[in-house]
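User: Can you predict the 3D structure for this chain?
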Amino acid sequence: MPLRVNGERIDPSRPARELLRLCPELEERAKLLRSQPARTVGPRGLLYVQQREFAATTPKDGSISVLGSDDATTCHLVVLRHTGSGAICLMHCDGSDTEKEVLLITNAVRALSPNTEYGRLEVHLIGGFNDDRHLSQQLTHQLLRAFDRLQDDIHLVTFCVTELNDRQEKGNHFPYIYGIAANVKTGEIFHAFFPDKGPEEDLRSASILTGAQMVNIYDSRKEQLCIGPYFWMPFPPANFWLDQDDQYLLQNLSTSPRAEPPHFISHIRATLLCLKEHPFPDQTLFSSRKPWIYVKNEDGLWEKISDQI
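Assistant: Here is the predicted structure, written as structure tokens:
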């Protein structure tokens, strides 16, 4: 079934500027989102989603009140919500396998919306900018095509991507919005920043750096965050990269060196160190072959309860 705006089918192959001419309300919503100052979202009640991760839940969740993700430069943040059940999913995608990833999150929201006789599926796309390699533009088109090919009608509500999320400063391009949050209870989408990106931020990033695919990190029925198990081969280049200066890392390990947030270098060094210290994570971290399980404690913070289900 087609991708729609205000009930009308749109052609995802058209350039974004033409799409906005036909659907000016999309540009107005993007302007409104860009005009918001970023809200700082703390760890209480937060489920933070890293690159190549997604998480889905419903308003009945007693542990999670906010889904969030940031540090997106050329990546896109995708929120899919069923207005009838309130089931909501947030994905941080980088174009590694977009069509498959869109199907994954759609199935996740469907599974949390059984026997729902009313409502519709609404999608919000945020992220990217006018980067030199046109990676953002490619990912925008991939996402539009993937949603247009689904069996369900998908209603595009927010379209703040690529040129609509681009700002210039001293001749260089940057995203307006690096991060968003989604209120699980109301479905509100807002500009956000997350000082706490855990748990196990570096470990999760190490898995991505070694080529992991998109993964669902949350079991909403049990209200549990599941990390791993991770398996990767030794990563000899870690020593080489750790010996390089910050500028070299920035130029060679980022898709958009001029647009990265200030903490990019410290984060990538911590990730490389994790790879160096755990060349065989299946032996040193996940010998049980089971994921690490986290739940929210009474203070709304993550607490590890087991390395087994």
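Residues 98-111 form the longest helix (14 residues). The two ends are 38 Å apart (CA to CA).
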